[in-house]
Write a sequence for this structure.
């Protein structure tokens, strides 16, 4: 089965770029780096903006491949990657440090000065893609 393509990928890409540039500082740098790692991990990833609302007019960056892989959100003290099916993923490097009590999602909060374990994060992203693909093939 073919992977869905974003409605307006060029526009979404530019909106995400603009949002990152507005952030500046460590949060913009962190989200930009995480975005690059996601794209490197899965060359077929679909990047979109979802859940637009008055308090967040540009929406939330979402990366998908046969379903949502993760979302990227920024807060005053953290940049958060939330994995849609994180509770079903093995996390041998212990990256998940937020939303640990839920039955579905898991998240990673990156704070100022945190080092990103590129290798472990890419493995987690690939595992999320594999899970999405396997769920799709079973339906």
């Amino acid at each position: 089965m073919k992977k869905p393509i974003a409605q307006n990928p060029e526009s979404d890409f530019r909106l995400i770029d603009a949002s990152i540039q507005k952030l500046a500082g460590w949060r913009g740098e962190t989200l930009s780096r995480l975005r690059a790692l996601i794209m490197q991990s899965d060359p077929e990833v679909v990047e979109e903006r979802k859940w637009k609302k008055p308090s967040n007019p540009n929406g939330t960056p979402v990366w998908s491949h046969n379903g949502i892989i993760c979302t990227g959100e920024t807060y005053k003290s953290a940049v958060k990657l939330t994995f849609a099916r994180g509770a079903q993923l093995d996390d041998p490097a212990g990256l998940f440090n937020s939303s640990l009590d839920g039955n579905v999602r898991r998240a990673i909060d990156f704070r100022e000065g945190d080092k990103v374990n590129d290798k472990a994060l890419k493995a987690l992203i690939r595992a999320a893609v594999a899970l999405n693909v396997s769920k799709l093939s079973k339906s």
Summary: Residues 46 and 72 are 13 Å apart (CA to CA). The radius of gyration is 14 Å. Residues 1-6 have pLDDT under 50 and may be disordered.
